[in-house]
Automatic annotation (TrEMBL):
The protein, known as: Two-component system response regulator
Domain Response regulatory: 5-123
Keyword Phosphoprotein: yes
Record keyword Amino-acid biosynthesis present: no
PANTHER family per record: PROTEIN PILG, STRESS RESPONSE REGULATOR PROTEIN 1
């Protein structure tokens, strides 16, 4: 079996565990090591030769960008492929990463197939993917720059957001009735829920803490799946963003006991440990109390 080492760097254990599980399920010959922050990553990179690094951008003490810049200044690892994993998808951040020498870029949240395709595309340049994969798996195809094409699932087409979804939820009425919403159900704010297939779902924040958020969306939107990764973009009045928080879908349920319920409740558990996000989220939550 090929001797290939992968380093995953992320302060969120959920993301590290996800990467390890996905890689080992399809490319079991790869040895996966993990680092909980940038400083730990530098320590490992100074002692171990890795074939590829997957690193989060936003981490306490040392960012993924700083890890990348350090690597590109070291003879030992200046040529090691580096994939940045981050919820920072704005153009200026992408340009900054490219200028620093990033090999590829994957935005949070991501699907298993997106992660596998990114890793396989990089490794296929120097390694035999068939030697890294299970022998009883369907053969991997390296054509078209998509070595996992035979296994990949095409991303779902992004569904349009109903123009009246926020208006219905924040207007103080239940769909199809004139009943007023109880005080305990008054929305705490607006948010966008970004999912691994590039879908963006407009939603209302029913409840939120520093650990989790309960969101309400219309059933005609893309319905989130339990345990899939997600990014919650919390907004202030006027559309100004408060925080962009990484998490995973903990539960999904109908908002009422009816098969025709127009709304579903989605609980997202946060996995970020970034101090700046924590501070922004703290101010937002405190303002609601």
């Amino acid at each position: 079996m090929a001797d290939v080492r992968l380093l995953v760097v992320d302060d969120a254990s959920f993301i590290r565990d996800l990467v390890k599980r996905v890689i080992k399920s399809k490319l079991p010959a790869i040895e996966v090591e993990e680092a909980v922050n940038g400083k730990r990553a530098l320590s490992l990179l100074g002692k171990v030769d890795f074939d590829i690094v997957l690193c989060d951008w936003e981490m306490p003490e040392m960012s993924g960008l700083e890890v990348l810049q350090w690597m590109r200044g070291q003879d030992r690892c200046k040529q090691v492929p580096f994939i940045m994993i981050t919820s920072r998808i704005d153009k200026e951040y992408v340009i900054q990463a490219v200028q620093s020498g990033v090999t590829d870029y994957i935005g949070k949240p991501f699907s298993n197939e997106q992660l596998l395709n990114k890793v396989a595309k990089v490794l296929a340049k120097k390694h035999d993917l068939r030697a890294l994969a299970r022998r009883d798996d369907q053969p991997l195809q390296a054509a078209q720059g998509n070595p996992l094409q035979a296994q990949a699932i095409q991303p779902a087409k992004i569904q349009g957001v109903a123009a009246d979804s926020v208006n219905v939820l924040t207007g103080g009425k239940s769909a199809g009735s004139g009943r007023k919403v109880a005080a305990s159900n008054v929305p705490k704010g607006l948010a966008q829920l970004r999912l691994p297939d590039n879908a963006t779902v407009r939603c209302v924040i029913k409840d939120i803490s520093l650990q989790e958020a309960t969101l309400v969306v219309k059933t005609e939107e893309r319905v989130p799946k339990v345990l899939e990764s997600a990014v919650v973009d919390i907004e202030q009045e006027g559309g100004k963003q408060v925080a962009r928080v990484n998490g995973f879908v903990f539960s999904v349920q109908a908002s009422e006991r009816s098969a025709s319920s127009e709304f579903i409740s989605v609980k997202v558990v946060f996995v970020d440990n970034d101090p700046e996000k924590f501070e922004a989220l703290s101010h937002f939550v405190a303002g609601l109390r």
